[in-house]
Every structure is written in structure tokens, then in C-alpha cells.
Design brief:
single chain, alpha+beta, Aminopeptidase, 8-stranded mixed β-sheet, two-stranded antiparallel sheet, 6 helices
Length: 214
């Protein structure tokens, strides 16, 4: 990321925060179709048993909620247990029984508000990909995402969607590595707790490469 784009990201984040205070919420994002057949190189640490892949349950949600490295406000035990109860699935990678990375998916609906809709019988929605701080830089995010693809394929689903915020460069890098298609760039503005909402599609593209200047 260039210095200019980094500065722009900081300014945009501060602007969003200021607008949120007065009840105006905005989002610039990509709707992404992920390649369900993508297979990143198998990490030898997984094959050696240093890392294990598994579905995470309620006890794991408690572990994440107590973890000192968690940085996101949605990483609470209560919120994640509720997500499980709604039928969402969470698949993760563990190292010596400690959770290192995880991602969520569901087969019911796209839950991101500007793109919310019911999913078709062959579709799934991926969200909340996260790597714990001490395990970053180890290439675990593409691995756990690919494991989610396998779980989704096992349910007979062939189309997978997700959303990446425009300035979430880490998320976009992972999806680019996995040959994702960035379907469109959108912007959404809402007022008074989603009472009023406006959405625009700024750019539509059908390619496997992320725009080079983003």
C-alpha cells in the first residue's frame, strides 16, 4: 500500500467514525464470489500434525472470547454463541489445542446489510475470517478458507459469496490469493439505525484480479 493510500484509509476510517456518531453510517465494499475449488498449497505444518483443522463449537467460542489477543468488538463469547445457535458454522485451525484462525459460513442468507438476501440452494455465504494476532504472517487464512470450501462442497453447494470492505486490505489479499472474483464495488449510506438506506453500485467487473490501485 502506498503512503497516499494509507493516509486515505486513515482519513476514511475517521470520517466513518465521525458520521456514525451523528447517526449516519456508510460503507464502501466489494461483493466477492469466491472460487470454491481453490486449493492453496497444503501447509506441511498441517500434515505434520502441528496444526489441526476442525469445526468450532460453543466451548471454543468461550476460548476466543477470553483470548487476550482478540481485537474486534464482535469477538465476544455471547455474540459467537448466538451465531452458532442461528445455524452458522465456524471452522478453525488449532495449534496445540489453541485456536489460531477461523472463518464462518452459512447456507441461509447473505447477512451483510447492503447485500442481504436469501441464498439459493447451491449458494453459501462466508464471513468473519480472522487470525489471532500471534499467528499472523503464517499463511493460515487461505488454509482455513479453503477448508471452509471443502465443507461447503460436501453440502452440494457450488457458489460462494462474501464481502470485503474497501479498505480491508488483508481480507482482499487473501481472496486474491484464492482466485476470487470481485463482482461489484458498492457504496451504502444509512440513517437512523438503518431506517433509511441508499445503495449504489459504483463498478461492476467480472475478473479474478483485484483492482491494482486498491
Amino acid at each position: 500500500m502506498t503512503r497516499e493510500r494509507s493516509f486515505a484509509a486513515v482519513l476514511a476510517d475517521r470520517l466513518y467514525r465521525c458520521l456514525n456518531v451523528i447517526g449516519i453510517h456508510g460503507a464502501v465494499y466489494y461483493l466477492v464470489r469466491e472460487d470454491i475449488d481453490a486449493e492453496p498449497p497444503r501447509d506441511p505444518r498441517v500434515d505434520r500434525g502441528e496444526f489441526t483443522v476442525c469445526f468450532l463449537g460453543e466451548d471454543d467460542m468461550a476460548s476466543i472470547g477470553r483470548h487476550p489477543d482478540r481485537e474486534q468488538p464482535w469477538l465476544t463469547e455471547t455474540a459467537m454463541r448466538e451465531s452458532l445457535r442461528k445455524g452458522n458454522r465456524c471452522i478453525g485451525i488449532k495449534h496445540n489445542e489453541e485456536i489460531a484462525a477461523f472463518t464462518w459460513f452459512n447456507c441461509g442468507e447473505i447477512t451483510y446489510p447492503p447485500e442481504r438476501r436469501r441464498l439459493e440452494a447451491d449458494e453459501a455465504y462466508l464471513f468473519d475470517l480472522y487470525t489471532l494476532k500471534q499467528y499472523r504472517g503464517m499463511g493460515l487464512a487461505p488454509i482455513v478458507r479453503a477448508e471452509a470450501y471443502r465443507a461447503i462442497r460436501a453440502q452440494g453447494r457450488t457458489r460462494v459469496y462474501s464481502v470485503s470492505e474497501f479498505f480491508n486490505h488483508a481480507s482482499i489479499r487473501v481472496k486474491k490469493k484464492l482466485n476470487a472474483t470481485f463482482v461489484h464495488l458498492g457504496i451504502c449510506v444509512s440513517l437512523f439505525n438503518e431506517r433509511y438506506r441508499w445503495k449504489w453500485t459504483l463498478k461492476t467487473r467480472a475478473c479474478s484480479q483485484r483492482p491494482s490501485r486498491v
